[in-house]
TrEMBL record:
Organism field: Thermoactinomyces mirandus
Protein's UniProt name: UDP-N-acetylmuramoyl-L-alanyl-D-glutamate--2,6-diaminopimelate ligase
Mur ligase C-terminal domain location: 337-465
Gene expressing this chain: murE
Residues annotated to bind meso-2,6-diaminopimelate: 386, 410-413, 463, 467
Family matches, as PANTHER family: MUR LIGASE FAMILY MEMBER, UDP-N-ACETYLMURAMOYL-L-ALANYL-D-GLUTAMATE--2,6-DIAMINOPIMELATE LIGASE MURE HOMOLOG, CHLOROPLASTIC
GO cellular component: cytoplasm
Keywords assigned: ATP-binding, Cell cycle, Cell division, Cell shape, Cell wall biogenesis/degradation, Cytoplasm, Ligase, Magnesium, Nucleotide-binding, Peptidoglycan synthesis
Pathway: Cell wall biogenesis; peptidoglycan biosynthesis
Location(s), subcellular: Cytoplasm
Keyword Magnesium appears in the UniProt entry: yes
Sequence similarity: Belongs to the MurCDEF family. MurE subfamily.
Residues that span the membrane, as ranges: none
Amino acid sequence: MQVRELIQPLLLHKATGDLTTEIKGIQLDSRQVQRGDLFIALRGTKVDAHRFVEQAVAGGAAAVMVEESVALPEVPVIQVPDTRRAMAVVAAKFYGYPTKELKLIGVTGTNGKTTTTYLIEQLLRHKGVSTGVIGTIQTKIRGKTLPAKNTTPEAVELQKTFRMMRDEGCEYSVIEVSSHALDMGRTRGCQFHIGVFTNLTQDHLDYHGTMEKYREAKSLLFSQLGNAYSGQLENNPVAIFNADDEASRYFMNRTAAQVLTYGIDQPADVRAENIRFFSSGTSFTLKTYRGEVPVRLKLVGKFNVYNVLAAVSVALVEGMDLQQIRSGLSGIKGVTGRFEPVDLGQSFSVLVDYAHTPDSLENVLATIREFARGRVLCLVGCGGDRDRSKRPIMADIAVKYSDYAIFTSDNPRTEDPIAILDDMLTGVQSCPKERYAVISDRRQAIHEAVRKAEPEDVILIAGKGHETYQEINGVRHHFDDREVARDAIVSRLAK
Ligand SMILES: CC(=O)N[C@H]1[C@@H](OP(=O)(O)OP(=O)(O)OC[C@H]2O[C@@H](n3ccc(=O)[nH]c3=O)[C@H](O)[C@@H]2O)O[C@H](CO)[C@@H](O)[C@@H]1O[C@H](C)C(=O)N[C@@H](C)C(=O)N[C@H](CCC(=O)O)C(=O)O
Ligand SMILES: Nc1ncnc2c1ncn2[C@@H]1O[C@H](COP(=O)(O)OP(=O)(O)OP(=O)(O)O)[C@@H](O)[C@H]1O
Ligand SMILES: N[C@H](CCC[C@H](N)C(=O)O)C(=O)O
């Protein structure tokens, strides 16, 4: 595509150089530029990429997009007021507006995004349609998987992935939409067909500052629904809300889309009643505006009933009937690293879970409490360079809901692991010391939990779920809670 065509949708820009120059790709990282790329200079949290424009051109960039005027006579220079904003517009144009050819479903909320996207994918598969998925664990395109760096990728990668999905024959794309992505405009230029809200509780205050700003970022998915290109409702979008979460009303008042609600406690269009929990699953009556049907799931916990109701709401909007939904739900599998048992036939249970927020930790521990016949042992840490204010709250929840807590390291990133643990300990000052231990080394902590377990006890290893690394001092070392738990169980069984 020529530069002049690429920048045609940009209202405010100054362009110099030969605008018939062909652009073969878009790149944000000067170190990865390929011949013919447009290099877009973003002002990051660590560096301002304007200082890399010359390096990008030397590496083969055919044009650059910048906010400051730069003297680069050899290539076209497009100067815009905001490269981040312009990036979303040109990325959608470059890849031919792929979300107009896909049914795009966005899921946002503090917890449950990954689980809900996977449930939606599994239900849509049952309907017989092909669905691509983008989220925290990985990107999935018709059986192929690609690694994920962010929960929601930057606009260029996002649009490129949608084009790949379309080329591979996907009809739907279901994506996790993080508050960071909404705030940074990564999803501008996406035409969403459905927006789903799971819940809003504390997280990411390091980034957003206050809960109000966090909520405001999340609301963008709904206020932008249907307005991506023309300001008109092009595709009759639907917004799906959790009626039991008070933030839903705030979002409802900000969307022009049709609204559907789901819930357990409050009146809603899609509800679960007569819920019964077992250690291996859940049953309930699914009541919808299209009738009711009994449902049995292999997932445990009230929080998963919410995730299922959100996915069922999407299935209903997409025309699936209740019998199809019911049989789809009976075959549904849990998500890797979410409530995942490590079972070598030992006399106690070990569960690995991705709970890394106060609300998710509380939900998971409350669920375990309901069926645990022995003690509950909780191993938990908090990530470095992230919301510090959640640390004491999570420690407090750990001791409140378990019989014994082991505080350990999660991903310390660039922080001192001991300082993170000290922040956590401020939350348990009034708790008797014999109720918890502090073992900074995560491997040792897992071995200690397994050594301590008695028959019927349940050990929850929280925080890292599917992650296969531990990031210490900016370096990622291989670490998988499930592998370490297995080793610990094997050595205990050998004694
Ligand atoms: C705060 C934030 O969002 N950071 C994102 C941002 O990184 P940054 O601002 O630190 O980038 P930087 O290192 O300062 O570099 C600025 C620019 O210079 C470029 N550069 C840099 C060096 C160089 O030699 N040449 C060069 O061109 C970089 O490619 C970049 O475009 O731009 C990067 C590239 O696009 C992102 O990968 C990175 O996400 C990091 C990994 C991150 O951790 N983000 C978190 C906060 C985040 O977005 N999380 C949410 C999930 C939250 C949740 O729901 O749990 C998510 O959606 O992932
Ligand atoms: N609806 C829910 N409400 C509260 N907690 C939940 C819910 N669903 C899942 N959880 C808990 O949150 C953890 C993370 O779940 P999931 O990965 O689905 O959320 P997420 O929103 O994608 O998280 P992230 O974006 O941070 O990766 C799970 O391991 C579980 O402990
Ligand atoms: N997307 C989340 C993941 C947190 C996972 C947890 N293991 C941690 O490292 O804090 C975040 O970036 O806050």
